[in-house]
Specification:
The chain has helices spanning about 5-20, 25-40, 80, 175-185, 205-215, 235-245, 260-265, 315-320, 325-330, 345-355, 360-370; strands at about 65, 90-95, 100-105, 110, 125, 135-140, 145-150, 155-160, 165-170, 190-200, 225, 245-250, 290-295, 300-305. By secondary structure, the protein is an alpha/beta fold. The strands form 3 sheets. A 6-stranded mixed sheet has the order 11-10-9-12-14-13, with helices on both faces. It has a 5-stranded antiparallel sheet with strand order 4-3-2-5-6. It starts with a helix and ends with a helix. Bound molecules: guanosine-5'-triphosphate, magnesium ion and zinc ion (ZN).
């Protein structure tokens, strides 16, 4: 069976799966009715407020699932925020289950009722009537970092209005493929992607050389790389310089040192950090909610909870390939729509065979195609 045939078979299988999942509409109605009755019987259950969210996986506790269909898109608020006096404009610096924390124009932090879905980094206009201010309007988002939710169709916004997305990895076992994943997730978002490899202090000279080889394809692909140590202070000046005056969000697996970096770059941040597990060096998900901290030299950093995976769902080959600009630099493949998986005369696989494309870059690309 050739590759195209296999692909068709896979699509057929998928279609069948969804078809089999469909239930009879009458049966569906009956199920909904009985679920409603069950809910109504449980009168002791506290009523859910609109802004409370279901936690679907523990690695993203406070990331906000954006429910669809939603009636108030941030764009609807465009005139809304202009109608709010400038003194009541504020920036969301933390989002909790039942409240958000904002910093207002005077630099004061206050609790607000998140009467609209907000995410860290949002610019909001407040309604200050009443004992606890409410979010009256959310400014249109200049940029967003989103991740596919655990439920189908439910995506999660991780942060809004950021200039930089900094993927943080640990020097010992850097999951470089995460950089590619985040790049694909960002698509055409107007943000800069940065890679930051922390814990440089744990490397000896040969390990440093091996790491440099692993990271080498990133910079020519337009991703600046910083090798730093939050613990030893190495490389922090360069990173701080690159982020000055900008809003950056730190994302990465648990235990790589995101919060430690934030503490090193913004000493008043005082974020909790936690030891990694002894056996596998993985973190223990110390940070449970995102927070935005202002940097002294201007700009801001957003700390986020560690992510286990950065799910994307199946990625179309051309979208995946866009994250690997070096593929386009090798000669054309025989087929114009070559996916570089198994087609004959594939220039990309041939270049990887000659070592002109790093084999782990090709592997990372192929993993993206298989994601589901
Ligand atoms: N050797 C070394 N250890 C570090 C460095 N930076 C952080 N650590 C340690 O790594 C562990 C995890 O650090 P955190 O800052 O809590 O990691 P995190 O990425 O915020 O983890 P989560 O909040 O769980 O996502 C802590 O024990 C830190 O002391 C570093 O540069 N070198
Ligand atoms: Mg943390
Ligand atoms: Zn090819």
């Amino acid at each position: 069976m050739d590759e195209r045939e296999r692909e068709r078979e896979r699509l057929r299988r998928n279609a069948r799966k969804h078809f089999e999942k469909r239930v009879d509409p009458e049966e569906n109605k009956r199920r909904k009715r009985s679920a409603k009755e069950r809910r109504e019987r449980r009168t002791d259950r506290p009523r859910r407020r609109r802004f409370e969210v279901d936690v679907e996986d523990d690695d993203l506790v406070d990331f906000e699932p954006i429910r669809r269909p939603k009636r108030t898109s941030p764009g609807d608020d465009a005139s809304g925020i202009d109608a709010v006096p400038a003194a009541w404009h504020a920036r969301v610096v933390a989002v909790h289950r039942d409240r958000a924390v904002v910093r207002d124009a005077a630099g004061r932090e206050l609790d607000v009722r998140p009467t609209r879905p907000v995410v860290v980094g949002d610019r909001v206009g407040l309604d200050r009537v009443g004992p606890v201010p409410a979010v009256a309007a959310v400014a249109p988002r200049r940029s967003v970092l989103r991740r596919r939710g655990a439920s189908p169709g439910g995506e999660r916004l991780l942060a809004a209005n950021v200039d930089d997305v900094v993927v943080v990895l640990a020097a010992g076992r850097p999951k470089v493929g995460l950089v590619d994943r985040v790049r694909v997730a960002l698509g055409a978002e107007p943000v800069r992607l940065v890679a930051c490899v922390n814990k440089a202090d744990t490397l000896d000279a040969p390990a440093r050389a091996a790491l440099a080889r692993l990271l080498a394809p990133l910079e020519p692909g337009g991703v600046p790389v910083f090798l730093v140590s939050a613990a030893a202070g190495e490389g922090l000046d360069g990173l701080a310089e690159a982020l000055r005056g900008r809003t950056a969000v730190l994302v990465g697996p648990s235990g790589v040192g995101k919060s430690s970096l934030l503490n090193a770059l913004a000493p008043h941040a005082d974020r909790a950090t936690g030891a990694v597990r002894r056996g596998d060096g993985k973190g223990r998900h110390t940070t449970t909610s995102s927070a935005l901290v202002d940097l002294e030299g201007g700009g801001a950093l957003i700390d986020t909870p560690g992510i286990r995976t950065f799910g994307l769902g199946p990625v179309p080959p051309d979208e995946a390939a866009a994250a690997f600009p070096e593929f386009a630099r090798v000669g054309p493949c025989r087929f114009g729509d070559c996916t570089h998986r198994a087609e004959p005369d594939c220039a990309v696989r041939e270049a990887a065979g000659r070592g002109e494309i790093a084999p782990d870059r090709l592997a990372s690309y192929l993993r993206l195609l298989e994601d589901d």
